[in-house]
Amino acid sequence: MTTERPTELKLVFDEPVQRKKAPKHLADFGPAERKAFAKELGFQPFRAAQVATHYFSHLSNNPDDWTDIPAAERQAIADALTPKMIELVTTRTTDGGMTRKDLWKLHDGVLVESVLMRYSDRTTVCISSQAGCGMNCPFCATGQAGLTRNLSAAEITDQIVAAARACAEGEMPGGPTRLSNIVFMGMGEPLANYNAVVRTLHNITDPNPDGLGISARSVVVSTVGLVNGIEKLMDEGINCTLAVSLHTPDDELRDSLVPINNRFKVREVLAAADAYEKKTGRRYSIEYALIRDINDQSWRSDLLGRLLKNRNAHVNLIPLNPTPGSKWTASRREDEAEFVRILEGYGVPVTVRDTRGREIDGACGQLAASEKEKI
């Protein structure tokens, strides 16, 4: 899909002004670039491969354990190639410890969140790609906070490595496990921080020791519908799963619920998702937050069913996790059930997302907002 776009659309990928740049880290570079990075800092290039093995394969952030590196050099190499990118501020748990929300402080004091969830058949981490979000969706705590800045690839990757380490070290009930799934559904619009997210996708999917060696089939990148970003992503050859946050099938409501719809209309977004599915062979997901009396009417389910009935798409209905003081709230159970029934009548695969995390400021951006108020 190569439709020419107006010049101003490149602004979707512009980097917001940063007050202070994040320190460079091994995870900001590809394998070959890492050697040049090490050399630039005054170390032998092969040290980059050694450190990458410790970071990605062994999930080790303790240079004392790096026995293949001379003891006198370990700390200096660690400080230079793997500087601390995120610092844990607080952790909240629910579901008997099976859901854990971590609040991280970045080098400039900015706060972001990740959520680790253990299920019977998988362990998933939901990560942030931006501090805040510029998409301005009115029902989203992060969207209402606005965009602070993009995260670097290392700041995103370090959330994942920290989650993988917590799993491996048995920090969740049930003992040690393997982090199996990653979803870019935390704070931010991933495709508005395109380069850092793509570098992170390589860090996730590249085999050890160059990356974490997690299958692209287990990685989900969510977008509100940045069509030019979807088009770029399909040419990367990574073949992760695409999730489109649609939230309503009609342009009139979507213009206000998801303001980027004023640039990219519903049918254009779905056409881009279809092209992504055709190129990658990966069925895409339609994310739909059910909001009481706003987008949960049966006629909207009927319209959505008619739009999707011949597409290789799956609908993920999300009972809205309301934020304090918001006028937006979750749909009634009977309306949710009717919405599902109508979609199934069109043969559209549909599931209702497990509503984890309500007790721990589970809606994206809530925990960061509540901690900011204390500062």
Automatic annotation (TrEMBL):
Enzymatic reactions: adenosine(37) in tRNA + 2 reduced [2Fe-2S]-[ferredoxin] + 2 S-adenosyl-L-methionine = 2-methyladenosine(37) in tRNA + 5'-deoxyadenosine + L-methionine + 2 oxidized [2Fe-2S]-[ferredoxin] + S-adenosyl-L-homocysteine; adenosine(2503) in 23S rRNA + 2 reduced [2Fe-2S]-[ferredoxin] + 2 S-adenosyl-L-methionine = 2-methyladenosine(2503) in 23S rRNA + 5'-deoxyadenosine + L-methionine + 2 oxidized [2Fe-2S]-[ferredoxin] + S-adenosyl-L-homocysteine
Residue sites binding S-adenosyl-L-methionine per the record: 188-189, 222, 245-247, 321
Pfam families (UniProt xref): Radical_SAM
Ranges for domain Radical SAM core: 119-359
Cofactor note: Binds 1 [4Fe-4S] cluster. The cluster is coordinated with 3 cysteines and an exchangeable S-adenosyl-L-methionine.
PROSITE patterns, sorted: RADICAL_SAM
Location in or out of the cell: Cytoplasm
EC number(s) recorded for this UniProt protein: 2.1.1.192
Protein purpose: Specifically methylates position 2 of adenine 2503 in 23S rRNA and position 2 of adenine 37 in tRNAs.
Annotated family: Belongs to the radical SAM superfamily. RlmN family.
Additional note from the record: Reaction proceeds by a ping-pong mechanism involving intermediate methylation of a conserved cysteine residue.
HAMAP family: RNA_methyltr_RlmN
Name under which the protein is recorded: Probable dual-specificity RNA methyltransferase RlmN
